Each structure stands twice: as C-alpha cells, then as structure tokens.
Amino acid sequence: MTHPHGVAALDDEPGSSRTAKSPQQRFRDSLLAAGLLIDTGTPGLYGRGAEFEKILIRLEDVLTRAAELSSDLTPGGLGYPIYRFGPIFPRATYEKTDYVESFPDLTGAISTFSGGDREHRALMAARTRGEQWDHFLAPGDTMLVSAACHPVYEQLPSRLPEEGAAADVSGYCFRNEPSPDPMRMRSFRMREFVRIGDPETIRAHRAAWLDRAFELLRSFGLDVERVAANDPFFGRAGKLLANGQLDADLKTEFVVPIYGDAAPATAIASANDAQDHFGQKFSISCADGSVAHTTCTAFGLERTTLALFATHGTDSGAWPSAVKEALAL
Amino acid sequence: MTHPHGVAALDDEPGSSRTAKSPQQRFRDSLLAAGLLIDTGTPGLYGRGAEFEKILIRLEDVLTRAAELSSDLTPGGLGYPIYRFGPIFPRATYEKTDYVESFPDLTGAISTFSGGDREHRALMAARTRGEQWDHFLAPGDTMLVSAACHPVYEQLPSRLPEEGAAADVSGYCFRNEPSPDPMRMRSFRMREFVRIGDPETIRAHRAAWLDRAFELLRSFGLDVERVAANDPFFGRAGKLLANGQLDADLKTEFVVPIYGDAAPATAIASANDAQDHFGQKFSISCADGSVAHTTCTAFGLERTTLALFATHGTDSGAWPSAVKEALAL
C-alpha cells in the first residue's frame, strides 16, 4: 500500500498507514511527551521545558566560546561587541531593511489601542457579539523582529573605522510559518555573528565561519552538511532573487537530515553574504567612502537544540559522552 | 526659579533649568553612556549591552535558587515546574484572560500577510507612495504576551489534584507605555512564581513570598518597601476595579525610590492574589470542584536590574561586596 506522503516505511504501527502520522508529527509528539516542548494549541508556537532550555543555554555558552576563539576575525582582534535586543523593534528600522518587499508572508506587524472610554466600549461591544475587534486598534510604531541582526545595523556609524565593525547579537525572531513540523517555529531565538566592512573582509569572515561553524556542529555529533541555498523570497519576482542568490553563492546553509530520507534536510544555521544590502539601506560606508558590505553567521538556537534531540534522543543524560563534553553537559 | 516639573533641585547644572533634563532622562543618559542599554530611537525600546545582560542573568540565577528554597510552598514540596514561553502566544489564550477588557491601552496585537502576488504589488505600491500598508495585513492568531504567567493557565488540568499546582515562568512581556523613563520599557522580561489551588493555599503562598521577596530584594542593597497597589485598569470603569483591588488588599508592590523624592517610587516586583479570575476564565477547578484561585509573585527582570544600577552605580565592579555576594558576582 502506497502512503500518500511517502512516509509509510517510517511508521511504527503496521496496518495503520491511513491514519499514520508524518515523521514531523511523530518527532513533535516525542518532544511533547518528554516535556521538552509544551503545546500551546496553536501551530508553530511552543513553550519550552526545563531540559530543553538547559540544552539551549549550554549551546549559547558554547557559541560564546566559539566567538571568543574567533576574535581574530573581528576589528583589532577585540572580539564581537554584544548586543541583545528584545522581540520587537522600531517600525522605522524594519522599514529600512525592506523586509516587507521580500518576505511579506513571514512578517508580523503590531497594532495598539489609543482610544478612550467610548472607543473601548465599542470594541468590547463588538467582542461580546463575537466579532473581530482589531479594527479598533491602529498600526503601532513597532514590529516583530524579523532576523536577530536587523536591529543592529541602526547602531553602526555612517562612516566605519578602517577595520570595520562586528557584532554578537541574539534574540527572538518571528516568522509566520505555522507548521506541524517542530523545526519550523514561528517564534524562536537566533544567535548571529555579524561583520561589517569592505567586500574582501566580509568574504574572508564568511569563509572562516563556514569551516568553524561546520566543525562546531560536527562536534555535537550532528550529521551536518553545507549546501548552497537561498532565502524564501516571496512570489514570482522572488524566484528571480532566489536564483540570483544561489548563482552568486551568497548563502550557505548547515543542514541536518532530521527526518532521514522522508523529508529534505533542515537548516539549523547559515552563513550569509548580504553584499551591500544593509550598507545601502542603513547608509553605512567604509572608511574609504564605499558602501559597506555585511555578512552574518546565524545559528537557529531552537533548531540546533532540536537537531540534538532528534539525533541523540530525548534523554540528554544518555547522549554520547563526546557530545556531552562538547556541550559541557 | 521654580521648575515646572519640580526637579530643579536635582539638576547638576545651575542656571540651566529651562532645558534641564528630568531625573528619568538623566538616568537614561547614564545607562546609555555606560553601554548598559542601547538606544533604538523609539521610546521604551532598548537593546541591552553585555554588562546589563550579565547582571540580569545573575538575577535570574538568584531567583532560581530562591524558588528552590521555596519549594516548601509547592505541591508536595517538589518545587516549581519550569515553563518558558516566547514573546507571543495564542490569541485564543489572550482572549480567555479578558486582558483587553481591563488593559486595552497596553495590548499588542499581531497582524500578518496572507495575500498573493497581486496583493503584495498593491501593498508595495502603497508603501512606495509613502502610505500606511497595514490594511493589506489581517489580524493573526497570535498576540504579544501580556504577562509572563498568562500562557501557563492553558497548561493546567481542568480538575487539579488535591495539592493544587505551581509554575515557574519567565519570558518577554509587552506593555505599550512609551516613556522617557527607562524603568518603563515596552518589551521586558518578567519572572513569576505561580501557585494554583484553594483560597487558603493561595493566601499562604502569597504571604510567604511577601516576606521572601522582600528579604531577597533587601539583600541586593535596594531601599525597597512593600505598598498596597492596584493594576492600571483602563478608563472610568477601571477606577472602580482599581479601588476594589486596593480595598481587598490583593496586590502588593515592592517599590524602590529610583528618583529620590522627584518621582514616586517604582515597582520592581509584586505579589498578587488574582482570586478566581484565571480559574474562571480557564475553567480550572480544585479537587473538590470549587473554582481554583491563583497567586503569582512577579519580578520585573529589567526593572530590578535597573534598580541595582540606580542604587549602586553603573559600574558593577564597584558595587558593595555584600551586594556582589548576594548576586554571586
């Protein structure tokens, strides 16, 4: 019997293929059963349990150490200055990134209420009638953070010093992709090591991290591979942008086969050359007046943590000793 | 010369009272100058620097230890189960809290885009004309988290065991109160110890934490006081609710005089008796079938961290040794 989604071979219960769960659903079930994730009842939104959070924090610590060991890639070898942003950022900064041009479907905009008693009574009356009440709100001056590095470009000087700049950023990001796959959360943390400077510096930084991130993820016992990739640019025009990004080899993803052969391997990190995109949008120049280029190496903290549980099992106490050692568990 | 805001006495520069900055602005300036906070250009939204984040994480660790020492207040003495939620949560859960009835002005609702190429072209055309484009989005199924404990009530069983339940929650909250006062952030983290059960259990839990939180905050060298308080219920009807809350002594705030006599002391934590509000809204019953009561002791992580810097100075290396010891610095 052929299963419509081609996952019958992975089903634990023979004969139940009509109602068989996908590998994504089964991974999700195992995470919920182990208390690693907490179901909120809404696709792509999870709470985290104690054990999940412990591993994620260890991962952050390892990345902090990796950044220290990579300070040779930073201006003057002084390391990555730390920036931590919350989950929302100024709409004015979001607008500068032009994110809505390429990723409208992933965007989250925030509305707020600034009416008085009368407007509130009308809102409550609509709500009591079971109607939507968002039209009593108005677009606010903040947006959900689209990528961890987006708030940082606003912090850079318009004219960089000779050696350029660097940043270590970490924070919650929003991507509106409701999915039964726990690897695709809508709200998740991303850690990024950003370098800003001339094109040659940027290429060298990215090349070095392509190897360092690969070695690091391998040290966690993950079956990681590096693949040329593209961002999920929206719509028909987006296909051209995606092809251009692929052709120019500007994005490399670190992917892990979470679901074996049943689904494409999932990206848990990436090393990106944004060329002069952010330099243009945020008016950042190199010391010689040319538009600054930027690169970031980004680690999906939830995805990397989940890849560890998918690879080594939901009981971290039983993980291979080399993996525990790499994560200082 | 009388300063219109009554802060002339605190001004460092005599004769400059016309352009004198408020104590709030001067505290903000000192935090930005020290790299503790990072200005995003939008009121109430900040990035955090390395040193600020280090202190906040130490504070979290101290609270973890305080919770362990308070496990006598939890079901079976087993401690507070850990729940970590992201900055957004299901709209369905938000609706259950009835938050929009009492705090519409603090609420943040999320809109998303689900159109195709044509709608996206129209959005982009409006944006190019400099028009607002939020009307191309639609209300989504998520909201910004209004209080750290709000997502947790959905996780509780409809019928509690005899000993009730408890939770340790921590996460980003949103309150739309743009302000020049850095103590009033719009996006901040809150740590809460929640107890759910019969009214007597709830009163005892709150009473114990009133003392424990007080001692803890005192151990940080903070000039903290406990005061009866009320939530900022919205509008004219809200005044009645606020008075009722005050009269029934359901909310105690831990306040610190951040700005001396120049402004009211600021709450950095609170111990609250929500009576049967969440039990009703989330249909949670005690073992005997009666509606469950809830209490939470909530620590504003940014506010407590800022109170430390306001009290002991922006250089944590120079803090009193007893304070450093209390925070394991």
UniProtKB/TrEMBL annotation, chains A, B:
Q: Where is this region: Disordered?
A: 1-24
The alphabetical list of record keywords is: Ligase
Please provide, alphabetically and separated by semicolons, the GO molecular function terms listed in this UniProt record.
ligase activity
Show the InterPro entries listed in the entry: aa-tRNA-synth_II/BPL/LPL
Cited Gene3D superfamilies:
Bira Bifunctional Protein, Domain 2
Top-level lineage group: Bacteria
- This chain belongs to which protein, by name? Amino acid--[acyl-carrier-protein] ligase
Species the sequence originates in = Dietzia timorensis
